[in-house]
């Protein structure tokens, strides 16, 4: 079963075992609704959000009661099973669903595979690795340039403007 990273612990907060929690959710406070969350090594925690901080939240994690225990979790990422995430709208995609997909041009020629997705202001960028290229391609993830995303076939069609794919 695939899992999705919904947040990370960035350190301890206060003297009662709270952690500093950075949420990767579209609505940051939604991370609490995914309780229990799981770490890479299988530990599970219920989350109760506290104060809003500059880069996230102060939060209580079940079973963590001292600043030392909280500080030991610094850098730990928190995951939930993919099937617990809400369904996306028709033209919305989870980045993790795009990674690994084959990318072809409108003529069906392979351009490579999606290695990553980067958020850049108004548009996301698809990072595409191609056999035979030493660098990666960065393609704006817009409807004009990426007219088709077929999740079932794990295939993305790209209609790049002239010069985008030049070496």
Mean pLDDT: 89
CATH domain fold name of the largest domain: Elongation Factor Tu (Ef-tu), domain 3
Helix % is under 10%
- Rounded to the nearest angstrom, the radius of gyration is 19 Å
**Tally of domains:** 2
How is the largest sheet built, in terms of strand order?
A: 11-10-9-8-13-12
Ends distance: 38 Å
Order of helices and strands: EEEEEEHEHEEEEEE
Content of β-strand: 35-45%
* CATH architecture assignment name of the largest domain: Beta Barrel
The number of strands is 13
- How does the overall form come out from the CA principal axes? elongated
Uncertain stretches:
none
Largest sheet: 6 strands, mixed
CATH class of the largest domain: Mainly Beta
Short characterization:
A six-stranded mixed sheet has the order 11-10-9-8-13-12. A five-stranded antiparallel sheet has the order 5-6-2-1-7. Strands 3-4 form a two-stranded antiparallel sheet.
Could you characterize the architecture of this molecule?
The protein is mainly beta and about 170 residues long. It folds into two domains: about 5-85, RimM (Elongation Factor Tu (Ef-tu), domain 3, Beta Barrel); about 95-160, Roll (SH3 type barrels), CATH 2.30.30.240. Helices cover about 5% and strands about 45% of the residues. It is built from two helices and 13 strands; from the N terminus they run ββββββαβαββββββ. The protein has helices spanning about 65-70, 95-100; strands at about 5-15, 20-25, 35-40, 45, 45-55, 55-60, 75-80, 100-105, 110-120, 125-130, 135-140, 150, 155-160. The strands form three sheets. The chain has a six-stranded mixed β-sheet with strand order 11-10-9-8-13-12. A five-stranded antiparallel β-sheet has the order 5-6-2-1-7. Strands 3-4 form a two-stranded antiparallel sheet. Strand 12 (about 150) and strand 13 form a beta hairpin. The longest helix has 5 residues, at about 65-70. The radius of gyration is 19 Å and the shape is elongated.
């Amino acid at each position: 079963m695939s899992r999705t990273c919904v947040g990370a612990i960035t350190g301890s907060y206060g003297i009662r075992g709270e952690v500093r929690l950075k949420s990767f959710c579209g609505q940051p406070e939604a991370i609490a609704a995914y309780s229990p969350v799981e770490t890479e090594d299988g530990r599970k925690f219920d989350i109760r959000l506290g104060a809003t901080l500059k880069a996230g939240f102060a939060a209580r994690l079940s079973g963590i009661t001292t600043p030392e225990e909280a500080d030991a979790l610094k850098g730990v990422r928190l995951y939930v099973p993919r099937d617990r995430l809400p369904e996306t709208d028709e033209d919305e995609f989870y980045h993790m669903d795009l990674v690994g997909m084959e990318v072809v041009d409108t003529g069906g020629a392979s351009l490579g595979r999606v290695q990553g997705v980067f958020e850049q202001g108004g548009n996301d960028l698809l990072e595409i690795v191609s056999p035979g290229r030493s660098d990666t391609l960065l393609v704006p993830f817009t409807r004009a340039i990426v007219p088709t995303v077929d999740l079932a076939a794990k295939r993305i069609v790209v209609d790049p403007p002239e010069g985008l794919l030049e070496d």
